[in-house]
Amino acid sequence: MAFERKKILLAEDDYDDRIFFLEHLNEREDVELMPIAENGVEVLKYLDALKSDDFPDLIILDQNMPMKNGIQTLEDLKSIENFASIPVVIYSTYADNHLIETCMNKGAETVVTKPLAKKEYGDMMDNFMQTIILLKQ
Question: How many Å apart are CA 125 and CA 28, to the nearest integer?
């Protein structure tokens, strides 16, 4: 059965976390990882250069990035008509109730705590893929 690979744009400034994502996502057949951005400024610049047919199916934003953090990038994405409908998830080393509420109010699909182990990255990505599928229905 053929399926459409889902394009994911990751914004992550930490080298080790990028490696965890790459190790896990390279094993998946249902994901196409777009070039990794190191901050929110790069996310917006990258999206500006794409045609709408090439937009990601999901954007994953690290909350703690230089130049433009996850919340700031989320606000920008949701305020730009071309990008507003792209689902965004925020993940952070520490996701307290304030961060969760703030991000959800600004349009994030979900907010999660960064995994500590590779298997947890797999579980997190399974949840993200389920989110994409539900949103496309």
Answer: 10
